[in-house]
Specification:
By secondary structure, the chain is α+β, with helices and mostly antiparallel strands. The protein has two domains: 2-15 and 34-191, ATPase, nucleotide binding domain (Nucleotidyltransferase, domain 5, 2-Layer Sandwich), CATH 3.30.420; 195-469, Nucleotidyltransferase, domain 5, CATH 3.30.420.40. Helix content is 40%, strand content 16%.
Length: 469
C-alpha cells in the first residue's frame, strides 16, 4: 500500500497541463486552482524536499502492532476527543511509530513528515504548508486548539519543527510557479481540503440534516456540522472543511473493492454490469446469505483492523447470483452501520428534513443505489455532479477568490438531481432483520478475528521467509 510521490507529482503536472490545453478558446483566464487530495497518507522528506521513502497510503495497515504502544503512552479517549480521529493504523500518528521502529535510519534522517498534497505544494511554491483539513485527518492535530497535538507527537517521537505550518483550506498563494502547470503567473493556488470532506461539499450536502453516502473503492457516510463534533464512543471521525464548517462521518475500507474482489476471484470474465444484473435476479436478502465485507479489516464504526470477510448462512440453495447480491448488500450493511451511528449524534435545532445524497462510482448502477434506498429505508438522491470532490475544491477556490460568499452558495452551481430512488418498505423490513443479524455475527466473531488475523500474519511471514530468503 505504498505509492511513489515523484510519480504522483509527474501525473499531477501532466494532467493539469493536458486539461488546460483542451480548454476552448472562449476561456481567457483561469481564476484559481484548488487542490483535493486523499487523506491519511504520510512519508518523510529531506531538507531539500526529496522523498526518503515511498508514501504510505490510508490503506497501509502495517502500523497496527504499534497501537498498543499508543494505548500505553496516551489516554486514547482523550486523544480522540482532541483530534477527532479514533485509534487506527490508517492514521499517520500510528504510521509515524512504524517509521520510527521499522525504518529508524530514515526516521532519524527525515527533515519533515508530509502528505502528498504538501509535497506538491512544496514543489510548486517552495513553501511548507498543510491545510487544516489534511491536518485534521492525521490523528495528531488538536481540533479545538487549532494546533498540532504535543502529547500525540511526543508519543511518536516527532518535534513540531518536523511538521508543516497549518493554514485555512481557503488559504491562497499568489507567488508560485504557475507556468509549471501552464497557468498564467499570479493565478492563485488555493490549498483546498481532503477529498472526503470536499465530496460532501460538492454533492451540495451543506445543510444540518443532509448526508452523503459515497461508494467508490472504499465508502463513507458524512454530514457537515458548524463546530467539531465528537462521538461519545468514538465510532466516527471529525475533519475540517472550512474555518466555520467541519465534516463528521465514518468510512469503510471495502466498498467497490469488495465487488472487485468478488469478480476477480469468482467471475474474472464477467463485467460488473453482468454481476449486478445477476444479483438483481435474486430476492432481497440473498436467501438469508450475509456477507461481512471486511476483506482489508475495517474502519467505522467498529475500527477493527483485524476483522475479516465472512459469508454467513451458506446452504446448498445459494447460487453465484446469491453470493453476488450478498456482496453488494454486505457493503450496504457496512455503510448503514456508519449512517446509524451518525444518526445518534445531535443535530442543531431546526435541522432540515433528512436527505441522503449518493456519489461515487456505484451510482452508475441504478440497481445498487436502489438496494441502498431499501437498506437505509430513506430516499436516495443522485446529484448531477459527476465528481463531487473536484466541484467541492472549485467551490473553495471560488470562496477564496470572492466568487462566492460562502460554501452554502454552492446551490447556485448545482443542477437538478439525476434521479431519486424511493425505498420499498417490504424489502426494508427484510433488511432491518438481516442487518441485526449482521451486527450479531460481527460481535460474536471479534475474538475469532483476532485469532485468525494472527494466524494469517504468521503464515504470511513464513511464506515470505521461504520464498524470499
Amino acid at each position: 500500500m505504498e505509492q511513489n510521490p515523484e510519480e504522483i507529482y509527474a501525473a499531477f503536472r501532466s494532467t493539469v497541463r493536458q486539461a488546460i490545453s483542451k480548454l476552448p478558446p472562449s476561456v481567457h483566464r483561469i481564476r484559481s486552482i484548488t487542490l483535493s487530495a486523499a487523506l491519511h497518507n504520510i512519508f518523510p522528506v529531506s531538507q531539500a524536499g526529496d522523498p526518503l521513502h515511498p508514501m504510505l497510503t490510508w490503506a497501509d495497515s502495517r502500523a497496527e502492532p504499534y497501537l498498543d504502544q499508543i494505548r500505553e503512552q496516551l489516554d486514547v479517549a482523550a486523544l480522540y476527543a482532541r483530534t477527532g480521529c479514533p485509534l487506527h493504523p490508517m492514521y499517520p500518528l500510528a504510521k509515524l511509530l512504524w517509521f520510527r521502529h521499522e525504518r529508524p535510519q530514515i526516521f532519524a534522517a527525515a527533515h519533515r513528515f508530509i502528505s502528498i498534497k504538501e509535497f506538491i505544494v512544496q514543489r510548486l511554491t517552495g513553501q511548507a504548508a498543510v491545510d487544516r483539513s489534511v491536518a485534521s485527518g492525521t490523528g495528531f492535530f488538536d481540533l479545538h486548539e487549532d494546533r498540532w497535538d504535543a502529547a500525540a507527537l511526543g508519543a511518536a517521537g516527532v518535534t513540531l519543527n518536523r511538521l508543516s505550518p497549518v493554514y485555512s483550506t481557503t488559504h491562497a498563494i499568489a507567488d508560485w510557479a504557475a507556468t509549471e502547470l501552464g497557468l498564467s503567473q499570479g493565478t492563485p493556488l488555493v490549498l483546498g481540503a481532503g477529498d472526503g470532506p470536499l465530496s460532501t461539499l460538492g454533492a451540495g450536502a451543506v445543510g444540518s440534516n443532509q448526508y452523503t453516502a459515497t461508494i467508490g473503492t472504499s465508502g463513507a457516510v458524512r454530514r457537515c456540522v458548524p463546530a467539531p463534533q465528537i462521538d461519545p464512543v468514538a465510532r466516527n471521525w471529525c475533519y475540517n472543511l472550512t474555518d466555520n464548517t467541519w465534516v463528521v462521518g465514518g468510512a469503510i475500507n471495502n466498498g467497490g473493492l469488495a465487488l472487485q474482489w468478488f469478480r476477480d476471484t469468482f467471475a474474472p470474465d464477467a463485467s460488473y454490469e453482468t454481476l449486478v444484473t445477476n444479483a438483481g435476479a435474486v430476492e432481497a436478502g440473498s436467501g438469508g446469505l450475509i456477507f461481512l465485507p471486511f476483506l482489508t479489516g475495517d474502519r467505522a464504526p467498529y475500527w477493527n483492523s483485524r476483522s475479516r470477510g465472512v459469508f454467513f448462512g451458506v446452504t446448498l440453495n445459494h447460487t453465484h447470483g446469491h453470493f453476488a447480491r450478498a456482496t453488494l448488500e454486505g457493503v450496504l450493511y457496512a455503510m448503514y452501520s456508519v449512517f446509524a451511528a451518525l444518526r445518534m449524534l445531535p443535530i442543531e435545532s431546526g435541522g432540515d428534513i433528512l436527505q441522503i445524497l449518493a456519489s461515487g462510482s456505484f451510482t452508475r448502477s441504478p440497481a445498487w443505489v436502489q438496494m441502498m434506498a431499501d437498506v437505509f429505508g430513506h430516499s436516495i438522491i443522485v446529484p448531477s455532479t459527476s465528481d463531487a470532490s473536484a466541484l467541492g475544491a472549485a467551490v473553495l477556490g471560488m470562496v477564496a477568490t470572492g466568487e462566492l460568499e460562502s460554501i452554502v452558495r454552492i446551490d447556485r452551481l448545482l443542477a437538478a438531481p439525476v434521479a431519486v430512488f424511493q425505498p420499498d418498505r417490504g424489502r426494508h423490513g427484510t433488511y432491518e432483520e438481516l442487518f441485526g443479524l449482521y451486527e450479531t455475527v460481527y460481535r460474536n466473531l471479534i475474538g475469532a478475528f483476532d485469532r485468525v488475523s494472527g494466524i494469517q500474519e504468521r503464515l504470511s511471514a513464513a511464506a515470505r521467509g521461504s520464498n524470499y530468503p
